[in-house]
Design brief:
Blueprint (H helix, E strand, L loop, with lengths): L1 H9 L11 H6 L2 H6 L4 H6 L5 H15 L4 H13 L3 H10 L10 H13 L2 H12 L25 H9 L5 H5 L1 H6 L8
Helix pairs in contact: 5-6, 6-7, 7-8, 8-9, 8-10, 9-10
Length: 191
């Protein structure tokens, strides 16, 4: 335990607006660190100017626990892409692939995101088509962390991929954000 505390204290938390209790953050279990929508790295990432501090926190969390959970690579990659760190984001997204694919189109979503960042429209459209052809798994009934049913459009993440197509050439933050999602086909309100 003393070795773990020494290791955790060797990482320095940012100062100023991005300051947080580093030992407390790194001591969180994976669910509290990554899936608590109001806590963990997410609370830090919502502060103005703290996107990279949150990305670094995820990296340090992974390293301190020697974790290779694909979702941690993904979330760190998203933060780095949002901050304009395209190449590091792509490298992290590559590490988030699932082998074999999970049946929910995760790898097609990864392909689409990487193609968007590389500004490779043909690859983006090919990944979008692969995702669109994905059949819904039997018994698909998503729930939130409290077990309540969620209304999720199938295939999952199609709204984001469509936003990448609709806002091709813009920044990751713009395309991933709400305005581009409303521009994407299938996401527009009925008239």
């Amino acid at each position: 335990m003393l070795i773990l505390l020494a290791l955790l204290s060797s990482f320095q938390a940012p100062a100023g607006a991005c300051a947080y209790d580093r030992l407390q953050m790194l001591a969180l279990d994976l669910r509290a660190f990554d899936q608590d929508m109001d806590g963990g790295w997410r609370a830090l990432s919502r502060r103005e100017g703290c996107t990279l501090a949150a990305a670094d926190l995820i990296r340090d969390y992974r390293h301190s626990r020697r974790l290779s959970d694909t979702i941690l690579y993904w979330h760190e990659g998203q933060l780095r892409a949002s901050a304009g760190q395209t190449e590091p984001a792509i490298a992290l997204f590559e590490q988030s692939r699932k082998n074999p694919d999970d049946g929910f189109g995760w790898n097609s979503y990864v392909d689409a995101t990487i193609a968007f960042l590389r500004r490779d429209r043909p690859a983006l459209l090919a990944a979008r088509d692969a995702l669109a052809r994905l059949p819904m798994p039997a018994g698909f009934a998503p729930v939130d962390t409290e077990g309540r049913p969620l209304q999720i459009r199938w295939p999952m993440n199609m709204d984001i991929v469509d936003a990448f197509v609709a806002c091709f050439g813009r920044s990751y933050s713009e395309a991933y954000g709400g305005a581009c999602r409303t521009l994407a086909p299938g996401n527009r309100p009925e008239r």
